[in-house]
Write a structure and sequence with these properties.
The chain is α/β, with parallel strands linked by helices. It has 3 domains: 99 residues, Arc Repressor Mutant, subunit A, CATH 1.10.10; 80 residues, no CATH class; 157 residues. Helix content is 40%, strand content 11%. The chain has 16 helices and 12 strands. Strands 6-8-7-9-10 form a 5-stranded mixed beta sheet. Helix 9 links the parallel strand 7 and strand 8. The longest helix has 16 residues. The protein is globular and about 75 Å long. The chain starts with 11 loop residues before the first helix and ends in a 9-residue tail after the last helix.
Length: 365
């Protein structure tokens, strides 16, 4: 294997993959494992915070570059050959991975005497399991439980991580280790939770009773400009890809800032994942007592019309699901040929120049 390009260190998807590999195997000796380390692609993207369509496209390109260099192996499902399902770090390339991040290289296994520590109940499994985790980290968590941690209030995971380790990202990494396997440690025991990112949004010039959520940043910017002139929406919210589903509860904060009850519309990419986002968010919103998330039919209709002959390959021949058909209503049928052909439409087709040509539209359409 030829020397790896040092610039690979800067690739966000490799940084996250290495972080998780290191949390699991960084302290392992050579030949300790007989199976390679792997991660589901979607989980890896979410853990790395790569949620927007643009970030996901760049991550896909980066992963394929790493695969061509021989550092990782890409696996795809039989039905979706062009879509990454998981990425694998072959055992034989682990030395090259270590060499890319020498400052994080773990020393050989510690001579830490596991049985000499009075482990609290929550960590009583540690002497038997002997997870590949720094002893100092284990002792910090043990001290947390010993000194009344069970009674502490729930806080965001990064706050608890900094309190425990002086590193706000350390607990995220440890979540991928043997410590957090089923029946062992949990975030709830550590009195913390994952907190999604709040939404960026811009209040409209008047309260119309309709809030619009946009998936991607460029389209959000154009719709904000358009709304300043057309005065259609009480607010235009930047959903930021998958983060909209992860952070749905923050939608309540925006709606309470507005004077009247709001109907929530959504506009994003026309592909399977682009539809799963608002459908999942809508279900969460209803559980939280908020209005459902509905499709902005006006925008989707124009996206379909503009996209005639301009579709791009998605690599995924995935039929329109029942949930998606129900959510889209009358637009489901016109959209079926798109999905059946393994195509997708990016919402950026409905951009600023197009919007400027449309003087009128009813906000509720």
């Amino acid at each position: 294997m030829k020397p790896l390009n040092p610039s690979f260190r800067k690739l966000p998807v490799l940084q996250e993959l290495h972080r998780q590999w290191f949390a699991n195997r960084g302290a392992a000796t050579v030949n300790e494992y007989d199976r390679p380390f792997w991660r589901k692609w979607e989980d890896l993207l979410q853990d790395a915070g790569l949620n927007s369509a643009e970030e996901r496209r760049e991550a896909d390109r980066d992963a394929r570059t790493l695969a061509e260099a021989g550092l990782i192996v890409i696996k795809a499902s039989r039905q979706r050959r062009q879509v990454i399902e998981r990425v694998v770090i072959p055992l034989e390339t682990e030395p090259e991975l270590r060499a890319l991040f020498p400052e994080l290289e773990a020393s050989s296994k510690s001579s830490f005497e596991w049985e000499t520590v009075a482990w609290e109940l929550e960590l009583s499994f540690v002497p038997e399991v002997r997870p590949l985790v720094a002893p100092a980290d284990l002792q910090s968590m043990n001290e947390f439980f010993r000194t009344g941690g069970r009674e502490r209030p729930m806080v965001p995971i990064k706050e608890r991580s900094f309190q425990l380790f002086g590193d706000e990202k350390r607990l995220d990494a440890l979540r991928e280790s043997a410590l957090f396997q089923s029946g062992r440690l949990s975030l709830e025991l550590l009195r913390c939770e994952i907190v999604g990112e709040p939404f960026g949004w811009k209040r409209g010039p008047q309260d119309t009773g309709v809030t619009l959520v946009i998936e991607n940043a460029a389209t959000w910017h154009s719709y904000c400009r358009w709304n300043e002139e057309r005065r259609l929406f009480s607010a235009v919210v930047y959903g930021c890809g998958n983060r909209f589903a992860d952070s749905t509860r923050y939608l309540r904060d925006i709606l309470t800032e507005l004077a009247t009850p709001q109907r929530v519309l959504y506009f994003g990419d026309l592909d399977p994942q682009g539809l799963r986002i608002p459908i999942e968010a809508s279900a969460k919103a209803l559980r939280l007592g908020m209005p459902p998330v509905e499709p902005d039919l006006w925008s989707y209709q124009h996206l379909l019309r503009l996209g005639n002959g301009r579709e791009t390959n998605s690599g995924s021949v995935e039929p329109v699901s029942e949930d998606a058909a129900a959510w889209l209503g009358n637009l489901a049928e016109p959209m079926r040929p798109l999905f059946d052909g393994g195509k997708r439409l990016a919402q950026e087709l409905v951009g600023w120049e197009f919007l400027c040509l449309h003087e009128k539209r009813e906000p509720r359409l």
